[in-house]
HDIG domain protein
Amino acid sequence: MKAIFDSSMTSVTDFLTKVRPVSVVRNIQIILVFLTLLFVTYVLSIPFFGQSKVDTDPEGLFSEGKIAPETIQSVKEFSYEDSDKTNLEKQKAKSNVPYAFDKDFGVLASGIDTNLSEDLEILRILVQEGKSNPTTVKDRIPRWRNRTNDEIQAILDYPKKEKLKNFIQQYTNLIFSKYCIVKEDLSFAKELDKAGAKIRNIGTQDHTTIIDGNLVIPRSQIYKDGPVTAVLSKLASEKLPNVSESLLKAVSRIGLYYVYSYPACNYNPEETENSRIKAANAVSVQKSRIQANEIIVRAGDVITPEVKLKLDMMNLYATRANLASIVSIFLTQCVLIVIVGFYLIRYRPNRLNDLSSNLIIFFTLWIVIASIYLLSKVFYATDSDLSGVYYFGMFVPVGMLCLLLGFVYDEQLSIAIGFFLAFAVFFASRYNPTSFMLAFTVAVMSSIYGRRLLKRIDFLKAGFLLTFVQILVTTAGYLFDGREFYVSSGAGFFKDLTNSNLFRITVMCFVNGFASATAVQLLLPLYEYIFNIPTRFKLIELADTGHPLLQQLLTKAPSTYTHTFMVAALSERAAQNLNLDRLLVRVGVYFHDIGKIPNAGFFVENQHLIPKPEHIDKNNPALAAKTVIDHVLDGIEMAKKARLPREIISFIPEHHGTSTMAFFYHKALQEISSSARKNINKKDFQYPGPKPQSKETAIVMIADSLEAASRSLDEVSPESLDDLIRKIINSKLAENQLDESGLTIGDLEIIKASFKEVLLSSLHQRPKYPKPEDTKALESANSKKSKR
């Protein structure tokens, strides 16, 4: 069973890590991107899809006056024309229209001034005739008949009778200009006080004036209403300051009579109604808005007319998917994917050139998108109060995704994916800016820290880091939104603290941070096994010399084993100085020659350990070359069976590249006739390749040749090593073996210095140690001398 399982997993690994043409991988990427685009758009568009209708018919479960059997919540935001609200606004507009009145200023001249002049002329005649007593005056001037004797006497006692007309006219003019005196009592007095009055002035240049409603006074209130009388008396005292109190009272009373007798204002109901209709028509149609996730009615509540209207409107929009919003989300996702795509093409063009990497990234992204869908169902569920305490972004495992991708790949790729995911969280959170900042900052920090996960303790540190970042952003969001962190209820500090929002969001940040770090630890072994990716922990496992292949290499080809570790020392130092993945280089070197295990005795370093009959005839150059080439092919096959990562397997063929086996090729040309040389194919004496496709494998190619050549040095010195290293590198350059590796001239100089440093320390001359018997002889000689 185990053999079957291992064989199956080997086949899966081969399929996933198989080297495919870039065009094929790009086509697969297009399909994955399209599926992701559809999936994300669907998840984010769910609030804009329709929902099931509710029965609001007279006999239905949700008809007006009945008890709601269940809670109804709107799944999307929409607005509708609200006739009740429109009618209410029209009524408000009408009630704010000033009442229309007409004021005829001609009354002053034709009525008040004329009658006042007649009455004062009679008074003048009576004074001349010596009949100036109150009784006679009231008999001769009927309009003064209701005045008291004291008021008439005050008039008679005033010596400057010629000024009386001016006093009374001045007072009546003031009342006439400031107030609107109407004949009838007004049934709409309260409404008039709120709306005010619009006065159309007849007989003046100022055609229209707006006054307060309390300045429109029915004439019956001039004498009866205490406040009105007090105001008019105060007006008289202010405008006639040099008049005695008794005369002032008489003048005001007589003036009020003329005003009472000739009210100049008349209510204009036609003009008022026309203005109201015009104001009502100017009111725009009012709309009401139902928010996404708004509860229309709760189970057990009575369905009021207002609730029924909302239910009817929700039914109206239930079957209408908001196409504009869905298209907007789709286009936004397209733009984001294009941005991420251009970013990756610009900075990490070769990172996604294999199927396994694409599947890892898209599969993990789909997991997070699915979690967004499920979390939104819970977070925005009916009767859920989570949004009042938490932010949606606090629940999404963005940190898990970016921590994983940052660790497996690099921070540039992880940040790009995190950028896309942050906007998905932004849309899913109903465009909440704090949720976006949570997702984006967590994505950036976890991507950067993912490359620094070197030990198991680093996962714990990652949990604390993500927690700290989320607490900072959430605190900023609380301050920006004006939310309360802590409210004292008098139940005690500890109980208030545990019930506070501060405690809840802190706990949630801890849960999200450490759950993300823990999830990465759980997913890593699974991804490593299925996709066979060379993570740091996977490489550490492979670097264990107890690995079965390395143990076979040690027992069957010990000299190759020694050679391997020497090449590893050279390559790792160069990789370290070039800031490359030195652990990958070391493990790659460990397995680069495992193909020599089946025919270990053929290779020169192991011949002294193998019996002579087992040696392959080296006098047959073609057969010998095939055996050497087979060690590359055998090594690849053995590595695949052992499920080594593709990045490790690449060291096996690429450390030889397509270089020519000069020894056997030269021997083949030398040992056959000149006529037969035409039948020799040089490709039969060349390694199958490919040439080194990375700096790491190119370093190993140079180190492998250098280590073997360094054994033949007669003298080890800095100069001899410089010459040897230069010779090896130049030979690789001459065969164009480093063309596709990405190594620069500067890189080669660093490699030369690194190799020289290692070789000087390992090939240095050691002093000869003395024989034990020589040491004893010297001891004896010294002992005899001391006795003398």
About this structure: The longest strand covers residues 99-104.
